[in-house]
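User: Predict the structure for this protein chain, please.
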Amino acid sequence: MDDELFERLLYYPERLPVDLPPPRWAPDAEEVWMRTADGVDIHGLWWSEPRARPAILFLHGNAQEVYSWSLVREDLAELECRLLLIDYHGYGKSGGRPHESGLYSDGRAAMGWLEEHGIAGEETVVFGKSLGGAVACEAARGRDLMGLVLESTFTSLNSVARNLFGFTTGYAPEGSAYDSLSKLAEIRCPLLVIHGDSDELIPVQEGLTLFEAANEPKQLFMVEGAGHNDVSMRAGRRYASFIRSWLDGL
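Assistant: Here is the predicted structure, written as structure tokens:
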């Protein structure tokens, strides 16, 4: 399998017209732009209130775009945090095409945007969902962050290749592709791992392995009966209240 076909199987970006305003369910979101180190303009949504609370950088999964993902604001409302939600290379209104180093540069650009707007790492929680968890681990390496949340994510792409690319007999990505496990030694901030115990796409053992390998302090939130895309729904009110309790304890 060549790299181009591999990327088509991994990334499912949806595009947005550049002049399309934020959706009706996100009327208080501000559209923001940032430029990555490789010269690509990245689009995002920013909720600037409440100013007295931490900021969350949310790094989404491998499908859709920020307008669809902006519903996560409701899931995290109880946290009462500021929120930056970005689209990767090739997603939404962002330029370029998605690839591993590009997604990493997107995460770093978002961290830089927060810092340029007076929000230090010590005030920032990086939250990665699924593929976004790998981007989050890269963004968190060697940084003084308030915290890191990894939800429904994997140790490395190679580890879950059979689930993701099972129909491509004999194919496996390079062992270094989105290898979050190897980066945990460089992550010293408090960690929260969230995973559904019935995740059919990213097996729960992936989350448990990340948790076991991570430095202290760390906490685990296992959601009984949850698959890959319904963690917050299955957990119900416990979802936001658990994260809020963890956050307030930092």
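The chain is about 30% helix and 20% strand.
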